[in-house]
What does this fold into?
Amino acid sequence: MGILLGLFFFGGLWWTTKKGLLSKTPALWFLTSLFVRIGIVIIVFYYLSRGHWERALICLIGFIIARTIIMRITQIKDNSKPLEKEG
It folds into this structure.
């Protein structure tokens, strides 16, 4: 479940960035997205943990794994060559 939450959170951030930068009101996009994403993640984390820190830790590990997955999927490929040192 932590992985699904992470995919939702970081995928939503990626989507918001793409939409928000092209919008006439980017601040509204970013703030609304932030509150919705954080609100849902906190509520689900709280519900899943049910007072057990072990459950919360497992969910957090999945959340971090999802961050890594989203970062690799959305990574921009840099095809530029490094500058060569002048001799």
User: Anything to note?
Assistant: The mean pLDDT is 87. The helical segments are 2-22, 26-49, 53-74.
